[in-house]
């Protein structure tokens, strides 16, 4: 996300690993000193009661038939009308309440004539309902501080429809209003001919923008192949154009009446409020929901079945070969089994955990083979329960050449070894150790799991007919089964993973005549010899055996930064650091390392090495270790090693823990001081870049991803996706020549925020970054010039090779960069949101031309140029002129008339809430304070951040629109089908 926007400044925590039990978290607590402004806690209300809550000695409805320990943080209840619910207290982020309303009906519940209706009804609920007039829903949620698409949304899957609301500053009055409005949406949407006819074009626009082209053809054919004979083969949530255009109020209303019933509804609420008070609101607004008629039964989704006469020992069934010239080679086969509801017991989850261990073992071996020169770029095994339709084990890989048979045999041989011979004790111990670390981290971080994620976990557990469990329960079950996790037990589970009713496969190739369905079927049925050469040999790599960075440094200066309790530290070799020990995220330590000049250090001749560096620099090794050695070193630990090339610096980043902090810092420092230059990761990164390039041209969205950043910078190749010709011109030797000097140049800044001991971190800094030799200065004369703004008023046309009804349009105005005027840049974000709301109304609500037009404001905090205001939309080619006209008219009106006060409130309140929620996490402060050890001006601009994003006037917006939108001629970009003419 671009610098300077709240979305970029709100760094999100990485999701933790999960295997086996679906886990939820314990009650969350807000760490002191985290918020940028004082927040008023949500009141619980006077002695709230809820008569439908199940008592603590009852078995909650979710746990019936299960012996999994009940997560008592949840309170469960059942209304008299059959609606089930669950509520819990959660304080992450503070004052927010997350509401999920699940309807047990998705696209698999539709008849042939109703395809797309489940999703269409989702749209209709947002259009008009009992308490909300036409077009009032989104503005109403915005006035309550909830952004559309992020805080309020809905998702339709094959098996469920879920309505989502994350309500900020959830006071009792706002909660009452939110439940009232939601009850009206769910119980009494207005499904009439006008609303249906208005909403269908919007759904078709969504269908057009999210599908089509080569990718959609492959997805459709793959789904039809793998789920042959089942509803899932042709029941996608988006539906078909034929059935949607035929929809009317009666037919859509019939679907609604059949499935929108209290007995088929589950409400999950997690947030900063009393769970009993939340239960009482559910009773108040959903307790009198009554519907006529008998409850409908779910249709039969069908089972995967082998063809008649198939060999039970090798039941290869349907296979498909797809020729798509713009897509890379990929082969997937699935071992398909019927899905059945399970008794979600401890024993069942122990089996799931063993399955996960078995898959991890195989995937590690497949990766080792790929690194060592296998016939494929990547390969993965994954067991999935798919839409309550199949229990499948999928094997996916990308052949490196047209010899797909060799790649298939390579992959199958690794799997054959896993199904023939048990793993070694050392291999299994390694995977167990990795799982242990992940589950322990889950326990440590339970208090900061967001309420939205917890609520999502519960409704998804309902969907798959399973329970939820706390992270501690997950860890206890895993530890309790350790004695039974033997090589022989894993071998037995592995064999079951590859035993099924039928095996089906698909192969995508860019080359005609390379394969046939019969050849693929024969190759899948052919016997294969087990090959154990990809097994990871038992080997120990210890930090004690690694070379020291150098002579430890000393602290020469330390003191408060002046923000919260953050401390600035300077070491004797010039390295600076920010330290902030805090309990905002228990068990988690975030580390960022910034150095160098970033993109400015490259010129047009070396530009192709930028993305190769982000992919291969870390994998090329350090301190005598290659990637496999680094993986061994990480066993049983929590390390990260992310690398990004930013506009003005390079960044290493990681989430670790206090016990591993010193070693994490060593790895980062060793990469700078003792880099290795293994050629294999570079060769592999080149292959991946070549293979993926043509896929961008298969859709307008792909070309936007590929070319937008360079187009808005006047074709600067440093921001381009390298073409195959550019990639072909790179070499491992050239990679080292470019990157080796960059690792040595520029001052280093280290940020350590989280749950750690200050004195231990200081010692670790001394022996790692403090032990580095003096850094080479960056000569400003060697840096490339800032990117140029595109030619004013220019229009560029790109051509995609996707569907003829797909196009995209962009309008880009130049903006600014740097801290000197960053407050103006933040105010531009408000202007951008105003423009996006108007584009949404014009292009989606009125014209049905675009599903999700966007406006993006980029104002880099570093003074590197390239700031922009970008409006874009995916649409039909014929609607491009309408988009340009709408953007021009909106810009002109904002510059001459300005917004209304209500318009402004609908934008500033959600932005204010976004900032307030962001300030409760360490990632926000790390982003804001990067570079502040050497540039104190970065500290000063933090103090006005909340006001800058949330306080303004219509006149201020009018002036900014005149300055940036009206007075500057924008660049226009159109992406249309090959062979088409740009509409005038």
UniProtKB/TrEMBL annotation:
One Pfam match: Peptidase_M16_C
Domain Peptidase M16 N-terminal: 93-208
Region of interest: Disordered: 1-65, 297-316
Residue ranges occupied by any Peptidase M16 C-terminal domain in the UniProt entry: 248-433, 748-907
Composition bias type Low complexity, residue spans: 298-315
Alphabetic keyword roster: Hydrolase, Metalloprotease, Protease, Zinc
SUPFAM superfamilies: LuxS/MPP-like metallohydrolase
InterPro entries (alphabetical): Metalloenz_LuxS/M16, Pept_M16_N, Peptidase_M16, Peptidase_M16_C
Family: Belongs to the peptidase M16 family.
Protein name: Insulinase family protein
Lineage: Bacteria, Pseudomonadati, Pseudomonadota, Alphaproteobacteria, Sphingomonadales
